[in-house]
Design goal:
By secondary structure, the protein is α/β, with parallel strands linked by helices. It has helices at residues 51-60, 74-83, 100-111, 125-132; strands spanning 7-10, 30-33, 36-38, 64-69, 92-95, 118-121. The protein is built from four helices and six strands, in the order βββαβαβαβα. The radius of gyration is 15 Å and the shape is globular.
Length: 141
Protein backbone atom coordinates (compact mmCIF):
# COMPACT_ATOMS: atom_id res chain seq x y z
CA UNK A 1 0.00 0.00 0.00
CA UNK A 2 1.32 3.43 -0.97
CA UNK A 3 1.67 5.82 1.96
CA UNK A 4 1.96 9.58 1.52
CA UNK A 5 2.61 12.34 4.03
CA UNK A 6 -0.30 14.43 5.29
CA UNK A 7 1.80 17.56 5.64
CA UNK A 8 5.02 18.77 4.04
CA UNK A 9 7.02 21.32 6.04
CA UNK A 10 9.73 23.53 4.56
CA UNK A 11 12.52 25.60 6.02
CA UNK A 12 13.00 29.01 4.35
CA UNK A 13 16.68 30.01 4.17
CA UNK A 14 18.51 28.04 1.48
CA UNK A 15 15.47 25.80 1.07
CA UNK A 16 12.83 28.06 -0.52
CA UNK A 17 15.10 31.02 -1.21
CA UNK A 18 18.89 31.18 -1.77
CA UNK A 19 19.95 33.37 1.17
CA UNK A 20 19.70 33.97 4.92
CA UNK A 21 17.00 36.53 5.47
CA UNK A 22 18.77 37.98 8.50
CA UNK A 23 22.01 38.80 6.66
CA UNK A 24 21.46 39.25 2.91
CA UNK A 25 18.50 41.63 2.42
CA UNK A 26 16.90 44.47 4.32
CA UNK A 27 13.20 45.08 4.91
CA UNK A 28 10.89 46.59 4.14
CA UNK A 29 10.30 44.68 0.95
CA UNK A 30 8.43 46.08 -2.03
CA UNK A 31 6.44 43.88 -4.35
CA UNK A 32 6.92 45.10 -7.92
CA UNK A 33 5.13 42.12 -9.47
CA UNK A 34 4.37 38.53 -8.54
CA UNK A 35 7.92 37.53 -9.48
CA UNK A 36 9.80 40.74 -8.67
CA UNK A 37 10.40 41.85 -5.09
CA UNK A 38 12.94 44.48 -4.02
CA UNK A 39 14.46 45.15 -0.62
CA UNK A 40 14.78 48.63 0.85
CA UNK A 41 17.96 49.26 -1.15
CA UNK A 42 16.33 48.27 -4.45
CA UNK A 43 18.08 44.89 -4.62
CA UNK A 44 16.14 42.12 -6.30
CA UNK A 45 15.17 39.43 -3.75
CA UNK A 46 15.33 35.99 -5.42
CA UNK A 47 13.73 32.64 -4.69
CA UNK A 48 14.29 29.21 -6.15
CA UNK A 49 12.28 29.30 -9.37
CA UNK A 50 10.56 25.94 -8.90
CA UNK A 51 9.11 26.89 -5.49
CA UNK A 52 5.82 28.51 -6.61
CA UNK A 53 5.00 25.60 -8.92
CA UNK A 54 5.81 23.04 -6.22
CA UNK A 55 3.71 24.82 -3.58
CA UNK A 56 0.80 25.22 -5.99
CA UNK A 57 0.90 21.54 -6.97
CA UNK A 58 1.06 20.36 -3.36
CA UNK A 59 -2.03 22.40 -2.47
CA UNK A 60 -3.85 21.32 -5.63
CA UNK A 61 -3.11 17.68 -4.75
CA UNK A 62 -4.62 18.15 -1.29
CA UNK A 63 -1.52 18.24 0.88
CA UNK A 64 -1.19 20.46 3.94
CA UNK A 65 1.92 22.64 3.75
CA UNK A 66 3.88 24.33 6.51
CA UNK A 67 6.92 26.47 7.22
CA UNK A 68 9.37 25.96 10.08
CA UNK A 69 12.15 28.55 10.33
CA UNK A 70 14.49 29.42 13.20
CA UNK A 71 15.24 32.93 11.93
CA UNK A 72 15.16 35.85 14.33
CA UNK A 73 13.76 37.97 11.48
CA UNK A 74 10.21 36.72 11.97
CA UNK A 75 8.44 39.78 10.60
CA UNK A 76 10.74 40.05 7.61
CA UNK A 77 10.29 36.38 6.70
CA UNK A 78 6.49 36.67 6.92
CA UNK A 79 6.57 39.88 4.88
CA UNK A 80 8.62 38.21 2.15
CA UNK A 81 6.31 35.17 2.06
CA UNK A 82 3.41 37.57 1.54
CA UNK A 83 5.25 39.53 -1.18
CA UNK A 84 5.95 36.28 -3.05
CA UNK A 85 2.24 35.36 -2.59
CA UNK A 86 3.18 32.09 -0.91
CA UNK A 87 1.02 32.79 2.13
CA UNK A 88 -1.92 31.29 0.24
CA UNK A 89 -0.17 27.90 0.27
CA UNK A 90 0.92 27.64 3.91
CA UNK A 91 -1.51 26.11 6.39
CA UNK A 92 0.96 26.27 9.29
CA UNK A 93 3.63 28.91 9.84
CA UNK A 94 6.20 28.59 12.62
CA UNK A 95 8.85 31.30 12.23
CA UNK A 96 10.85 32.29 15.31
CA UNK A 97 14.19 31.47 16.97
CA UNK A 98 14.45 28.16 18.77
CA UNK A 99 14.54 24.53 17.84
CA UNK A 100 12.75 22.91 14.96
CA UNK A 101 11.35 20.35 17.39
CA UNK A 102 9.39 23.19 19.03
CA UNK A 103 8.11 24.27 15.63
CA UNK A 104 7.00 20.74 14.83
CA UNK A 105 5.40 20.19 18.21
CA UNK A 106 3.25 23.27 17.59
CA UNK A 107 2.39 22.14 14.06
CA UNK A 108 1.34 18.77 15.48
CA UNK A 109 -0.77 20.47 18.15
CA UNK A 110 -2.44 22.85 15.67
CA UNK A 111 -2.97 20.32 12.87
CA UNK A 112 -3.67 17.12 14.76
CA UNK A 113 -1.26 15.39 12.38
CA UNK A 114 1.18 12.90 13.92
CA UNK A 115 4.93 13.34 13.45
CA UNK A 116 5.18 10.15 11.40
CA UNK A 117 2.75 11.68 8.88
CA UNK A 118 4.96 14.74 8.32
CA UNK A 119 7.88 15.21 5.96
CA UNK A 120 10.47 17.95 6.37
CA UNK A 121 12.74 19.75 3.89
CA UNK A 122 15.72 21.69 5.25
CA UNK A 123 19.27 22.42 4.13
CA UNK A 124 20.77 21.99 7.60
CA UNK A 125 21.53 18.44 8.71
CA UNK A 126 21.22 19.32 12.42
CA UNK A 127 17.60 20.37 11.93
CA UNK A 128 16.76 17.23 9.98
CA UNK A 129 18.45 15.09 12.65
CA UNK A 130 16.55 16.79 15.49
CA UNK A 131 13.16 16.54 13.79
CA UNK A 132 13.79 12.94 12.73
CA UNK A 133 13.91 11.94 16.39
CA UNK A 134 10.25 12.96 16.78
CA UNK A 135 8.89 10.20 14.55
CA UNK A 136 9.92 7.84 11.78
CA UNK A 137 8.18 7.72 8.45
CA UNK A 138 8.49 5.87 5.18
CA UNK A 139 6.81 7.63 2.30
CA UNK A 140 6.61 7.05 -1.41
CA UNK A 141 6.85 10.37 -3.23
Amino acid sequence: MERKPKILVFDLDYTLWPFWIDTHYDAPFKKISKTDVKDRHGNNVPYYQAVPRILEKLKRDGFKVGVASRTSCTGEAKELIKCFEWDQYFDYVQIYPGTKTTHFTKIKRDSGIEFQDMIFFDDEHRNIRDVSKLGRNEFIL
